[in-house]
Amino acid sequence: MKTTSDPAIRLLRIRGHVQGVGYRNALQSEAIRRQLSGWVRNRSDGSVEALVAGPEEDLDAMIDWARRGPPAAVVAQVTWTEAEGPVPPGFQRAPTL
Length: 97
What we know:
The chain is an alpha+beta fold. Helix content is 25%, strand content 36%. It has 2 helices and 5 strands. The protein has a 5-stranded mixed beta sheet with strand order 4-1-3-2-5, with helices on one face. The termini are far apart.
């Protein structure tokens, strides 16, 4: 059961020109800067997927960042859903799925 002290968790899917442009590294750096937990990975369909956990306001800011991404990215769409934890501390790059 989730309590009010549990971090919020979001599963993000980012579509557009987001592979081969440093998107994962930039998202990881932004998440670490915001002290969020989770992971980011490429998907074989050309999208990027990220599981991000932390305070609601930081997740909202992270989603706003994901809509822009790094300078070389062209983000067409960001969708997200609520996700379940626990999420280990730290923010990792996961293998492509």
